[in-house]
Amino acid sequence: MYRDRLNTPAFLAMLPDVAGLGGLDVGCGEGHNTRLVTRRGAHMTGLDIAPTFLRRAREAEEVEPLGIEYVAGSALALPFSTESFDFVVAFMSLMDMPEIERVMREIRRVLVPAGFFQFSITHPFLDMPHHRNLRGPDGKTYAYEVGGYFQELRGKVEEWSFGAAPPEVKAPFPKFKVPRFTRTLSSWLNSLLDVGFTIERLGEPCPSDETARAHPYVQDAQVVPYFLHVRVRRPA
Questions:
Q1: How many structural domains is the chain composed of?
Q2: Global pTM?
Q3: Which residue numbers in the chain have pLDDT < 70?
Q4: Across the chain, which distance is largest between two alpha carbons, in Å?
Q5: Residue 118 lies in a domain
Q6: CATH of the domain at 68
Q7: pLDDT tens column, 94-142
Q8: Which residue(s) pair with 90 in the sheet?
């Protein structure tokens, strides 16, 4: 719900013109967003560390060939030569990675001079050890309780499943086990500045009243920011 109705549309609205450019999607998963960027005219490469995701991405490429190359690898040591891409994107993947400073240095390395890097993450304001959605009698969110902002987690494993999925769909499957790496907003931005990026644009997607009425599940994103979008550029 959040991806299709809010997060990805806002990300693509903020994305510069990529027609004819060579791009890299870091943490591409099953390639859903990689394909969306490709349809805007870019020549895309997708990178992920998970074999299952890459298999699904390649299967989708066989069904609808778009010219996307999917590569297995880690963002901590990108398997590409220096200055290989005009731009890099990362949709909701960086917050699940350790040693983000190394990741930023690697992304800067593979960008051409004046190339840009745009990414989305869970908003540092809400991505905390303690958080609770406060809803009124009508079921709508009116506030959010958070705590532990400065308690940065370094790999604590948590379990979760998709909240919007019906119970009968979730029941046969175990929960995801995800290591959490939380950071403050200043930590995220400083990691970009420290490797030499110039911050160009920031975004905090908020659903319109029309979207919230049509899809009540995302109403709480009108009260607090769930996502942070950042675009930076490697200086020429």
A1: 1
A2: 0.93
A3: none
A4: 56
A5: yes
A6: 3.40.50.150
A7: 999 999 999 999 999 999 999 999 999 999 998 888 889 999 999 999 9
A8: 119
Whether 22 is in a domain gets the answer: yes
Strands 111-122 and 85-91: parallel
58 lies in a domain? Answer: yes
Count of CB atoms within 10 A of residue 102's CB? Answer: 16
Q: What span, in angstroms and rounded, lies between the C-alpha atoms of 97 and 155? A: 9
List all residues 6 or more positions away from 138 whose beta carbon is below 8 Å from its beta carbon. none
Length of the chain: 236
Torsion sign across C-alpha atoms 21, 109, 93, 48: positive
Cα distances (Å, whole numbers) of residue 80 to 55, 107, 124: 20, 10, 30
Q: Any idea what the Cα angle at residue 176 is, between residues 100 and 123, rounded to 5°? A: 45
Question: What is the residue-wise DSSP string for 126-141?
Answer: T-SSEEEEEE-TTS-E
| CA-wise closest residue to 34 among 60, 2, 52, 14 | 60
At which residue do the structure tokens 């304001």 appear? 125
Q: Could you list the residue range(s) of the whole structural domain that residue 103 is in?
A: 2-124+184-233
Cα–Cα dist 37/15, whole Å: 9
